[in-house]
TrEMBL record:
Name of the molecule in the record: Small RNA 2'-O-methyltransferase
Reactions the enzyme catalyzes: small RNA 3'-end nucleotide + S-adenosyl-L-methionine = small RNA 3'-end 2'-O-methylnucleotide + S-adenosyl-L-homocysteine + H(+)
Keyword S-adenosyl-L-methionine: yes
Pfam families associated with the record: Hen1_L (PF12623), Methyltransf_12 (PF08242)
Source species, domain of life: Bacteria
EC number in record: 2.1.1.386
Organism: Streptomyces alanosinicus
Residues annotated as domain Methyltransferase type: 305-404
Signal sequence region: none
Amino acid sequence: MFLTISTRGDAAHPATDLGYLLHKHPDKAQKFSTSYGTAHVFYPEADDRRCTAALLLEIDPVALVRRGKGKGRGGAPDAALAQYVNDRPYAASSLLAVALSAVFSSALRAVCTARPERAATPLPLRVEVPALPARGGPDLVRQLFEPLGWSVSADPVPLDTEFPQWGDSRYVRLVLESEKLTLAEALRHLYVLLPVLDDAKHYWVSSDEVDKLLRAGAGWLPGHPEQKLITSRYLSRRWSLTRQAMERLELVRLAEADDSEVEAIDNAVPEDTEAAAEEKPAPLAVQRREAILAALRESGAARVLDLGCGQGQLVQELLRDVRFTEIVGVDVSMRALTIASRRLRLDRMGERQASRIRLVQGSLAYTDNRLRGYDAAVLSEVIEHLDLPRLPALEYAVFGHARPRTVLVTTPNVEYNVRWETLPAGHVRHGDHRFEWTREEFRGWAATVAERHGYVTGFVPVGPDDPEVGPPTQMAVFHRADTEKEAKAA
Ligand code: SAH
């Protein structure tokens, strides 16, 4: 198995700098022994204008089996013959990725003391992999590499050139070209995506693979449109690991998205925008919290979840009222929770007060046993931060699994947006909003959720209820149907 990396250059920036970046001298052919064969690095061409480094991995399938490294998934031996006769010597599989990381470890980390500026600058790069096993075919190859700035050619390799009627093999000849990437970025893409395309790891995948994936995926995997497929395949479809990795990627995405933004996310609408468009002095965020507190008091709840609590303003209000005996703030963003804990002065709080409150990190897109058995849950300006396809997961986690007696959900009413003087037409109120609903859309959603999970709903306007476009914030109040009956009977 084999891959080449080429670059172009000129007298001022000779292409042979590639040798410095890879920490391998262009004039020498070098050999590295690995536990499953020998890796060779050599340069088929090396001058100022063009330089190509080749990584060739010589696999010994017999040795691989003898050393117990040819086992199938879960350590079960493959069918006897397949252990010896397989594509390992020829195809660019996870073995090549491992060799890549072993032989070019400094280059992967962009360490280059001789040419630091070249290591940090995008280069004209061309990568060629003559036989890449690609489960998912050329289309998937393009979907994986193109969003990263590569132009991709992936031609299926025929099973046998003399018998074209046999059709194509599952291998493609891959050529990647880009001028936008540094060498380290390119190597990290290959390190992750070669085994993802092969979709069969030669070794047992354990939890430290999550760390490796996040390290190699830094800067490009969070937010990649195929992030889920990449993560799941890279971790050999081990669900618990995939979930761990997806949660961590979500955190990274949120952390990158904000800095200045957490501030804004926290209030869903920056308070000054709202205050400007508002006749009443109380900003909408304050009115929202008042409406939520009133609904919670009315429901008789004592133990309350604030799901997607952000920087903890509602938690702070809840703490002021002793009828709320247990308050749990949940958020996926560690940064938001840190700010919340500072706001609440958790470290300086008396024991009694501190025993009422907990802040926990978690994603609402997954069921969580820690959230079961509460009287009420609040989702204030949270649902619109989830991609619509992820919303059913949250619905199930909250209404199907945690199942509090009361659930309050607030979200912007998009009809009201025409009343914000500062909001250009057709814009959502906050950059991180994935959708904003009309009153009808929200009611339709709430009715479906209630029906599916056994709740009854009511609706409360928050903010000035405009006769034409309705209120700026809409709130749904869900009560579990079984407890509703009990309450009526009592
Ligand atoms: N409830 C607060 C904050 C709303 S902003 C308020 O009303 O002001 C939305 C919050 O939801 C953010 O803090 C964000 O980190 C959090 N969030 C977004 N997606 C989430 C998820 N999948 N799981 C948990 N929290 C999430």
